[in-house]
Description:
mainly alpha
Amino acid sequence: MKKIWYILKEIVYLVKKHKLAYLLPIFIVLAILAALVYYIGPAIITSFMYAGI
């Protein structure tokens, strides 16, 4: 869990430093997906990808 918070803090720092506020929603979605893959496991995610959903 510490790694996820660290990554989120770094993303916020990057956005503030380079004024990339339009990228923040994309980073948030990617962080949520990464957390889901980490906690749920990659097997469920790959089954959705192979099913074409």
